Amino acid sequence: MVHQLASHRAPAEPQLVYVPGTDQRLAVGAVPPLMLQVFRIPKQGGLAIPVSVEQLQTIPFTASYITIDDYMSPVVTNEEEDLDRSIALLSSIGSFRQRISVSTLLNDIVLDGHHLESLTQQYLARLEPAMAELLRSQLDTQDGNPRVLLSRQGVLTAIREIIRRYDDEREDIGPTLESTIALVHAVSVTLYDRERSHRDDPTMEDGKNRPQMEFIRSHIFYQQNSELPQLARCYLLWTKYGDSIVRTSSPCTPTELLAKATGLDIQDLFAFGFAMLSPRIARDELSSWSADQMWITKSYFPASVDQELLDSFLSLVSANPATLIEEFDKSDSPWNFLPFQKWPVLRVGDQYLILDLVFFLERITDGLFYDVNTYEKNISEQQRNVWTQVYGEMLELYVADLVRMLAPRDLATGGRFVYMEEHFREAFSGKICDTGIDYGREFCAIEVVSGRVKVETRVTGQVDSFDDDTERLVIDKARQLHEISLSILDNEAALTGTDRVSGREIVPILVNVGSYPVNHLSTSVIQRRLDEEGLLQDSRMVPLSIISIYELELLLLILESSGQTVPCILRAWQESDLVNMPLYVFLYTNSYLSEADGRRLWPVAQEDIVQLVIDRLGLAEDHGVPI
């Protein structure tokens, strides 16, 4: 279906494609933008999608990643038996510590386009001339579609293979950069092909659905955030907004529940987490990166740190190889990185290694929700349900504050033209909306959805699961927005106290917390469902905008820097050729923001976190832990 939309031809056999995102516009003109994702804050990311060779020629600004059969086919074939032997050999070279160190170093490098390009040139220089020339020809841009050396999915798959061979020690030789990259290229061949044999999943038997779900999983996997702003947002959620819960009755505050679930308070979690993360994100030039320096021990932390609390933190975020192997053996989906998400730090003896920076950041921020969720569920399902309501209220309070700052000021009273849930309930006999902004001609009706995309969608790629996610995370909220929009249009005076505004338009906005992908595929599904139910079809309603909390924060930055309002920006997005991409792709592509702007989010909270690390760890500001 996707291929036919793009080129009006039937798709050929799918291949894996990596879509990079460094200063590139990913869709132009009449080309239907597929679900492409850009990561400009702070580093390059990308998207792995299956696409045929013919389709590559129809989608500009895409790039495939290299696999081993692209330039080593005389040495390593892609026959499954030969490929398995090659993977086993390449993932067993040298000691386990050496293997995992070099592969983790590659995983850091692949997150940054500049470093990845430098690595590519180094790798080409080390290959035999004939092989280097063949690889260089594969990397050269063809029809506007370049290729890249590595993908994060491929590197994490290589790390998974190395961990599975934990007991296979070979001390005679050590892994080289070349052998580790070759391992990534070997496992990259398997990322799509091996799933073909999984016929026990009825949703995957239908070949027409498999590429679409590969797109969806790729999009979700490659979503990222900037480190300090994400830490700052999480810190505010658990402290300021967690202490402001009024709607949901709970005997404990969120921070008290977190302490019960983890044995740590939020300050300890952030202090230890940021201290571990900071040296890995502080490196600049590729020459300063060393695999030997990837590991840390408890002596890395100041001696004054409470050792019991430190042990609790390390137990929370780390696992030994045996635990990871046991978890990975439960599923061999090429998107199954759940064990790394739960335990992003590898523990071997008294040494610790962050395997993936993105997962580590998620673990000490968004992942805290699941710690409490599991703790409460072990007590009772009722307590777990209360916790989800508490967390949802925390998010709504946070968004409400963002909305207040986005709303225009009433020059007569000094207040702002913003409305909260209680205002809607009173005005429209119980019909509610989380919040709204009156801009005069336009009225933004805003709903927050805190639900998460299910594992069956993002890991195993079940179509029914994605349909269910779409229903509960988007369509159900769209019904609510539709009802409140009609109420405002029919009797806005009940809410605003003023007569009907001439030319009034409703701007429905859904703020999505749970990583629901916004792309060509998902927006097509959503629009079809909206059309079938007649939702948000009134000519006085502009198309539904689905944005993330991060994108809502970016809209605030733009308002502060240029004065452009939310309706103005969303209208430009809806009218652009990037309408089926995430909002922030449009914002950066059209120079609404720069990379530096993204780091300005919540500067006071960022400063508080840095000071928290200094205070909790007993550091002088010139301590060796870079902060």
Notes on the structure:
With 627 residues, this protein is an alpha/beta fold. It folds into three domains: 2-221, no CATH class; 227-376, no CATH class; 408-593, Restriction Endonuclease. The protein has 30 helices and twelve strands. The strands form four sheets. Strands 8-9-10-11-12 form a five-stranded mixed beta sheet. The protein has a three-stranded mixed beta sheet with strand order 5-6-7. Helix 12 crosses helix 20 and helix 12 (227-241) packs across helix 30 (603-616).
List the helices and strands and how they pair.
Elements lengths: L1 H6 L7 E6 L25 E6 L1 H4 L7 E2 L14 H11 L5 H14 L3 H14 L2 H11 L7 E2 L3 H13 L12 H12 L1 H4 L8 H4 L4 H12 L5 H15 L12 H9 L3 H16 L25 H11 E2 L1 H8 L9 H5 L2 E4 L2 E4 L2 H7 L4 H12 L1 H26 L11 E3 H7 L7 E4 L3 E11 L2 H4 L4 H28 L2 H4 L8 E10 L5 H14 L11 E4 H14 L3 H9 L8 H7 L5 H4 L4 H14 L11
Parallel strand pairs: 3-4, 5-6, 10-11, 11-12
Antiparallel strand pairs: 1-2, 6-7, 8-9, 9-10
**CA-atom Rg in angstroms:** 25 Å
* Tally of individual domains: 3
Low-confidence stretches: 1-61, 74-78, 193-208, 622-627
**How would you classify the helix and strand content by structural class?**
alpha/beta
> Overall pLDDT, averaged?
80
Strand residue percentage: 5-15%
Helical fraction:
40-55%
Label this structure with key terms.
627 residues; alpha/beta; Restriction Endonuclease; 3 domains; five-stranded mixed β-sheet; three-stranded mixed β-sheet; 30 helices; 9% strand; globular; disordered N terminus
Task: Please provide a brief summary of the model.
With 627 residues, this protein is α/β, with parallel strands linked by helices. Helix 12 crosses helix 30, helix 19 runs antiparallel to helix 20 and helix 20 packs parallel to helix 26.
